[in-house]
Amino acid sequence: MNVLPSLRDPAGFDAAAAWRYLLDLRHGGGASLPATVEPEAQRFLDLYLEFARAGAARPMVLAHLGQSLDGRIATRTGDSYYVNGPENIDHLHRMRALADAVIVGAGTVRKDDARLTTRRVTGSSPARVVIDPRRTLGSERRMFADDGTQVIVVCDATVTPSLRLPGHVEVIGLPTAGGQLAPQAVVKALIDRGLHRIFVEGGGATVSGFLAAGCLHRLQITIAPLILGSGRHGLELPPISRLAEATRLRWRLFPMGEDTLFDCDFRS
Ligand SMILES: NC(=O)c1ccc[n+]([C@@H]2O[C@H](COP(=O)([O-])OP(=O)(O)OC[C@H]3O[C@@H](n4cnc5c(N)ncnc54)[C@H](OP(=O)(O)O)[C@@H]3O)[C@@H](O)[C@H]2O)c1
To answer: Residue 202's closest CA among 54, 88, 92?
Structure first.
């Protein structure tokens, strides 16, 4: 179904029309873009079009972290509500709405009990995936709600769980090395289930693992004009001794209210 009648009227191609277009594309629609779009609509297309276009032929793994100017994603006690402003939270919900699967680490579910839904925007919620190698999370966690959305726990294949999960939750057991699951194996397991647009939403340890494993096509870091001075780091990677070993990226900037989003591309 073409949900874009305004496509025939370029003057009306605003941010709302761009969002309908992106959702239509993500669900396999074939509408074409008008020659002229309004600036806010262009910004949406610049930020979201490539992820919405990903699919079986071209899977994409994109991660996001929201952090302070001094690189912290939460206080020492784990308080992260909210490092970023409402515009960036809307952005996270848009990313979920375009994704087939959203991944978080067990630490984020233990601390935030995140729902991982798209309640702030139009669009359906993606499959919810948590990497919980030791099966520490119980059925009371909100991401395990039985709301018709696919829910997956990825764990160590050898673990003997002490906590039962509801029947609608799929458990994927994978091999570990030193307690770590290979992010490539996690991505492959999701792609094998038809989940091709993968959004890694945090926290720092999980995104760092995907980055260190070379599993990310894109990384978005939204920086808030905030100094925490202590607390949890966003990215933590194996140490390097020379600046020449640092990863230098192609990037684009997107204002997000008072915050600034760096959209970085690893496919140079
Ligand atoms: N600002 C933001 O963008 C943002 C986003 C999300 C969360 N947060 C905040 O960040 C904090 C949580 O972040 P975090 O870095 O501590 O934890 P996290 O990344 O959410 O979770 C880390 C845990 O997930 C499991 N895990 C993830 N990848 C794994 C892998 N490849 N192999 C094996 N296990 C893996 C491990 O579970 P086990 O611990 O069971 O071994 C690991 O300790 C919370 O305070 C949350 O509020 C901030």
So the answer is: 92
- Quick one: which atom of ligand 1 is closest to the CA of 186? 31
What is the mean predicted confidence (pLDDT) over 86-112? 97
Q: How far is the CA of 232 from the centre of ligand 1 (A)?
A: 11
A 10 A CB-CB count for 150 gives: 17
Pairing verdict, β 151-156 and 169-174: parallel
- Please report where in the chains the tokens 């993968």 appear, as a residue: 198
CA of 126 to the centre of ligand 1 (A): 19
Q: What percent of the chain is predicted at pLDDT more than 70?
A: 96
Distance of CA 213 to the CA centre of its chain: 17
State which H helix or E strand residue 156 sits in. Answer: strand 151-156
Distance CA 166, CA 146 (A): 8
Indicate whether this model's pTM tops 0.85. yes
Q: Give which of 52, 37, 29, 30 is closest to 6, Cα–Cα.
A: 37
CA distance 184 to 131: 13
Residue having the nearest C-alpha atom to atom 41 of ligand 1: 133
Rounded to 5 degrees, φ, ψ at 76 are -65, -30
- The residue ranges of every structural domain in the chain are 1-53, 58-234+251-265
Amino acid at 109: V
Q: Which homologous superfamily is 58-234+251-265 in?
A: Dihydrofolate Reductase, subunit A (3.40.430.10)
